[in-house]
């Protein structure tokens, strides 16, 4: 799946089958459901889950919590817009699945 297909899938009522939890979290975030996105991000404490977790807390405005999750996944806190970070995360995780 490419980024355009992933973005377009947000028009559907549920995420496409086979998405990783990190991509499901980004999908729910794009749908505007922060709670479902956060739940998916918390499901696994792997690098991808922690990175999305950091993004979600940054989006929420809880920067100290976001910084904690960025440190956990060994990533530098994002300085780009939230939209740019979302796209970067989505592209990174989609590339891992192809």
CATH topology-level fold name: Serine Threonine Protein Phosphatase 5, Tetratricopeptide repeat
Mean pLDDT equals: 96
Biggest beta-sheet profile: none
| Share of helix, binned | 55-70%
Stretches with pLDDT under 50, minimum 5 residues: none
Rg, please? 12 Å
How many separate domains? 1
Order of helices and strands: HHHHHH
Measured by DSSP, the beta-strand proportion falls in under 5%
Number of helices: 6
- Say how many strands there are: 0
CATH architecture heading: Alpha Horseshoe
Task: Estimate the global geometry from the Cα principal axes.
Answer: globular
Oligomer: single chain
C-alpha termini separation: 7 Å
Text of the CATH class: Mainly Alpha
Q: Which structural class best describes the helix and strand composition?
A: mainly alpha
């Amino acid at each position: 799946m490419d980024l355009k297909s992933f973005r377009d899938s947000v028009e559907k009522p549920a995420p496409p089958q086979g998405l990783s939890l990190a991509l499901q979290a980004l999908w729910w975030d794009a749908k505007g459901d922060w709670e479902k996105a956060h739940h998916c991000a918390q499901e696994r404490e792997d690098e991808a889950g922690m990175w999305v977790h950091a993004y979600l807390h940054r989006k929420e405005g809880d920067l100290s919590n976001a910084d904690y999750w960025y440190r956990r996944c060994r990533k530098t806190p994002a300085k780009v817009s939230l939209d740019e970070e979302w796209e970067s995360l989505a592209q990174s995780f989609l590339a891992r699945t192809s």
